[in-house]
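$ fold --in a.seq
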Amino acid sequence: MAVNDFAAYLSIFDHMAPFSGYVEKGFIVDFLGRRTDANFYAVLGVDPADYGGREIHTELPCLSTGEAWFEHFNWVAAAREARGSYVMMTLGSCFGNQAVGSYLALQTLNPMPAMLVAVDGVPENMEMTRKQFHNNGIDPDAHWLVEAAMSGDNKPVLFPIGSAGSGAQNCTETNSEAARMAILELARRNGTTDDLAQNLLLRNSTALTVNLVPSPDCDFTGEITFVSAVTLMDLLAPFARVDFVEADLQESECFVFPPAMDALTRKVRRVHLGTHTDDTHDMLEGLFRERGWDILFSYKPRQSYETPHATFDMDDGVLTAVNPAVAYSS
């Protein structure tokens, strides 16, 4: 199967009618009618007063939008091929947009019972995920919402809590041995080791704040806090088959996916990853190829791409892989 062969997939949205209708004040809507509280984007400078309160006519996804097209493609492709029941996982859920989009695509195109699994280590993000489910007619208590950081094992991790809705957190930079030693050395130099110990014992926090994005244009910060960790093996364990796993883990994917590759290959039909460095992108693509997965799309981060169908810019990279070992009967 050829990689990045859009000719085989550009018709996927054919015969779908994009949403048109009245949208309540303060809500953003997409082509499926997925309603998102604009307050969730406040961290990005969005003013909720600019949205909704009128008739909205949306359009079907366009390849020139880059990352978004690949996300929407996978929602629809996974929905169309599902049989019997449906399980979707979103790792680093932020406020649950991927889960809700996947669910709405399923119920629009191929209605059936579904289980959504949403994981995020930021408490405010998980509360927003619950609200996002409610706002789209989904009972969050009927699904599995996990407040935890994704990691390669179950040891508690130092994780930056803050800037809810930014999706900028990971445990790669705050949880390494070098990062932990740097925190300890800073406390020693400042004579604050007693304060550090007290915060860790009483609050599970270092009380240290870090910038989550190294850019003067982004004021995203987080307090380095101990949080529980869950593995992809833990999440896969209860299910005989998982239709779709989506992950945007800000580089934590390099810890999360390698230990789970055997289980993924036994159980999972489709994976879509946001990638954040070329090295991690290449490593993950290699792991899926080694186990016989078909790579549908592979575009590295922070580049512009020209294709015969569209030109698009990528911030995160995208990697979409489909597993022929987990097939559906007709």
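$ fold --in b.seq
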Amino acid sequence: MSKKIFLDVHAIQTLPPSNINRDDTGSPKTAQYGGVRRARVSSQSWKRAIREYFNDNSKESNIGIRTKDIVKYVAEKIAEIDESIDKENAFKIAEETLNKAGIKTAKGKARALFFLADTQAKELAKAAIEDIKDKKILQEILKKNPAIDIALFGRMVADDPSLNEDASCQVAHAISTHSIQNEFDFFTAVDDLSPEDNAGAGMLGTVEFNSSTLYRYANIAVHEFLKQLNNDKELTTNATKLFIEAFSNSLPTGKVNTFANQTLPQFLLITLRKDRPVNLVSAFEKPIKSNEGYVNMSINKLVNEIINVEKFTDSPLITMYVSLEDILNYEEIGEEKANLKELLESFSKELLKLLEEY
């Protein structure tokens, strides 16, 4: 395919006191941008949440598993296919087959996390039962029919780079549109069975947190995603639609029981471009300052930025958005949809139409 299609997904989402993504000291992750400290949620954290959303909400069964227990996973598939093979032998032939494919193991586990599609695991299990030892055949199984999350987020295999899968999706670290200061919650826990004359706490400690309005961004090279999914235009359209839904509705779960920070975006904007993907974080290089909330100002700065970047880029093929706030210049950016469901339905029709023309 000589033509290109890039999907950009942008969101403004506010979080109350929370700590959804911690660093090695337990503090909420932060970053310096525009000369001030911002709240930050790593791309790895949100990609994990998106993959969990795929597992919970996808009718598409070919979702990837990332694990060191790849031998056990394939062995389970072997046992499902042929019940006459006991667990010990299933494990043995699974490990032999994976080793022949170039995946090194030690003590029954892969040396590093390995990303494997459900369909690939089943095909490897069949190959193990049929005693196929040809490395080329086994590696071909690992290369074809990748799970949608493997195609989106890629796979790296240090032991055998030929098994690498390039990612068709990029996810940015979410950052706050304004400066933040981390705060501390001092907590105590009472021992229910402590003696009556013991007035002290059974446990005490601190939890660090912050509040923020985040700008979130991701893109997909749809033309590459289509190739990875064997040029299946309907599957590519449905998988891209699922990604947008997951991007909107997923949330990292760090300390969620402590803070119950179950929020959704206040603004979601998607574009399809033919020239290149565009991250609009430059809208917030100058941090927003406000005593009356950040959401409305963040949305309007984002809308202005999408208009401004057209001084350097081609106009998007399609722009659609859902907003919970009033928007200035709304008539200049694209089609407003009443809700996420309507946006996804309209987007799917438009994307499939574009793919059919390629």
